[in-house]
Amino acid sequence: MARQQRAIRTRRIFLEAAAEVFDEHGYDAATIAAILDRAGLTRGALYFHFTSKEELARGVLQEAVTSDGVSPQIFKLQEWIDIALLLAYRLPREPLLSASIRLSVDPRARGLFGTRWPDWITLGTEILTEAKERGELLPHVDPGATSRLFVGAWTGVQLITESMPEPPDLVGEISALLELILPNNAVPGVLARLDTSPHRPERILEENRTAAAS
């Protein structure tokens, strides 16, 4: 068991090191030597887990779609909101998430590995479909189209935000995006009870820490 746990930790170290290097330099400019230097581990240890830079990139992308921290809510729409806000909060703090976007917009990497955007669209479609079945969405709303457009808008906001000389807070920008989108999708009675505050991710994470400690 101890050996298995060490192996899991070692694999994670290499994924995070690769993510940092991909995020800073792009896929083509990233080298195994730079990843080893960042990880502080041996080449042998790397090749035990990953056979190539390409496999490392695939491993980073596999970590991209996550709803960690999101708990069941009264409204499915709130869960959809929470995923969007938590991702915006975590992305600048977690190289694995940031690198997955960098790899997705890198033409060379995208050609080799594709992206996880279809998976994000599928996840959103499933949540919004359930929300519509519960009567939370207006009759005209198409869950698949809404999810697809929102993933595109979320990604565009993130890319533009990080390119600005003084980048605004991503959580605040995504909060504003949700405020624009939700009135055209949520029924009024549900809309009034949704929390899109940019402070919500911190509250959710604090609640999770408190629950884990109790």
Question: Would you mind describing this structure in some detail?
Answer:
- This protein is mainly α.
- The protein has two domains: 2-62, Arc Repressor Mutant, subunit A; 76-213, Orthogonal Bundle (Tetracycline Repressor, domain 2).
- It is built from twelve helices and no strands.
- Helix 5 (76-90) crosses helix 12 (200-213).
- The longest helix is centred in the first third of the chain and has 24 residues, at 2-25.
- The chain starts with a helix and ends with a helix.
- The model has no long low-confidence stretch (mean pLDDT 92).
Q: What share of the residues does DSSP label as strand, in percent? A: under 5%
**Biggest pleated-sheet summary:** none
- In the predicted model, the low-confidence regions spanning at least 5 consecutive residues are none
Q: Percent helix among the residues?
A: over 70%
Shape: globular
